Amino acid sequence: MINKIKIFSILSILAGIFGSCGDYLDSDEYFKDRVTDEKIFSSKLYSEEWLAHTYSFLKNECADVSSKGYTPHCFADDMYYGDRDIEYDNKETNSLSYNQFHMGSYDENTKQDTWTQCYKGIRNASIFIKNIDINEDLDAEGIADYKAQARFVRAYYYWLLLRKYGPIPLLPDEGIDYTDSYEDIALPRNSYEECAAYISSEMVLAARDLKTYRDEQSIGRPTRGAALATRAMVLLYAASPLANGNTDGYAQQLTDDEGRLLLSTEYNEEKWAKAAAAAKDVIELGVYDLYVASYRTAGTSSFPATITPPENAEFSNKDWPEGWANIDPFESYRAVFNGTVSASDNPELIFTRGNNGGETPDAMVAHQLPRIASGWNTHGLTQKQCDAYYMNDGTDCPGKDKEIGRGDGSERVTGYVTAYDAYYGNYKPLAKGVSLQYANREPRFYASVAYNGSVWHLENESEEVNREQQVFYYRGDKDGNGYTNTMFWLRTGIGVMKFVHPRDTYENGDINNVVDKTEPAIRYADVLLMYAEALNELSGSYSIQSWDGSQTYAISRDVNEMAKGIKPVRIRAGVPDYSADVYSDQDLFRKKLKRERQIELMGEGKRYYDLRRWKDAPVEESIQIYGCNVLMTSGEKDLFHTPVAAFALQSTFSEKMWFWPIKHEELRRNERLTQNPGWTYYN
């Protein structure tokens, strides 16, 4: 019989190192009568409650796609929030304005629930894994699945910690002897490589017993694909410049308590091959595909007929997946995020936390919606992100990045959609009065960008007059930026349409008026892009075993394999695949790949971490943020559409911003824990 006192004593010790005093017995809420450990884990009901509680920490700060209240990391140089400029003091409320976040002026006690939540989840999962085998109500298959779920979620918590804080302490799987001295219990940080290797190995173990599919009632539980996809992400990060061959000053300062470097200074190309093989493992499952919507010959304003991309000799007359002849690229992309497609019907959804509470994508939308829909009208896009989207023929928009010194010499398009144009549909889906800068863009642009003069459909508004609204962001426009003396205005005059369903409204402040959305924590498009990225970094050939050892992959920079990764993402989006010249040029392909991730994964919590792992953050996050001139009225529309520096949004990057600081309280509790460079040890 396992000693119950020892189990909870271990919990108590670990809480002293990694959690808040007095709250280490969170699982005990299910066991108020202090039943024995044998009764807990031999009972199916109690075991399921314990496992459910282990999952419960995957919320709030542990989410990817969320409003800024818990997850500012969803905002980087692409997307911003503007409703916490002045009203909040982060030291007192733990709130954080975009400028505080983007300027690194937060402190060591800001947004630290991730650390606490993840280590609580790790503790609960470890106890579950150690004890579930004694269960008397579950068969061997059920026990194996439950144990694999716990193993997955434990490794996933480590992944969230590694991504945010960098190298972190790995707790021994067998637990800690509570009779040891505090000095013996204190744990140092493991290296990035050690953390990645551990998570990778645990995900392989989990994948062996996880189910391939989950029914709708269990959609938030991991599958084999979820474990393998997380493993691919971890290995990709470990192969990236921040953690692979990093010899800069920051890497020299990031050490454990004995001075051991925690980021690898020696470059190892094989890490990219392992990341590519891990992504291929997911592809080879044959379970996932990109979601596509059928071509529509007719429709409504909310669900319009398909806008066919320009004629392309290679792709226009071929059906999916070789072309876009029979699909609607706009709806194919839009429906993945806005609640049109349920989680169980979405073939590209690999892992979601489900609806665990806190600020979900639904809350994101409440902040994106215009004032006419009672939305906060504060989540917006930067001009850089707006320019990143291609034209509908795959070329760059005229004037792209001109203001930030990266232009090609072209000028932005002038003029506006006329009543004649709108009547004859010359610039679909643009309505009358919209700048032609936004004409003829790729479908993902229209599914993601709430440009000046966008039409919001708002089918659930109680007043019929409010249901079909064209919203302009000129100064003084009551439905757009008419509230510049309050928080409810877009700082760049460019909003966010991604995640918004035509039936969404925030009328009466009721979040139930927003169509429920599934958080896309991991989706297949990301895996495909990871595969292409990892292959591009190779100069040699490698033989890498598949996750289960059933086959050996020959991994090299094979352009046909790279196309298997990136081509479907672009074809689904209605833009042509890259030319042979792009595929043959490693540097050019890398640049294109980064842009593809910026577009495809916008608003999904990836950009902030991508910029860091690529070591691009010092440049990209220091560039001045530009947008429309929001001080201009509708009578000065030419000036409004001439991009200017966004006076209300600041940008910079300092070395300390590579990783999030560790809370002072945790440093005091664990004498072997070292702080991330640039941050302090004590108040």
UniProtKB/TrEMBL annotation:
Keywords: Cell outer membrane, Membrane, Signal
Keyword set includes Membrane: yes
Pfam entry (one): SusD_RagB
Transmembrane segments: none
GO cellular component terms given for this protein: cell outer membrane
Protein name: RagB/SusD family nutrient uptake outer membrane protein
Similarity annotation: Belongs to the SusD family.
Domain RagB/SusD residues, every copy: 360-679
Chief location of this protein within or outside the cell: membrane
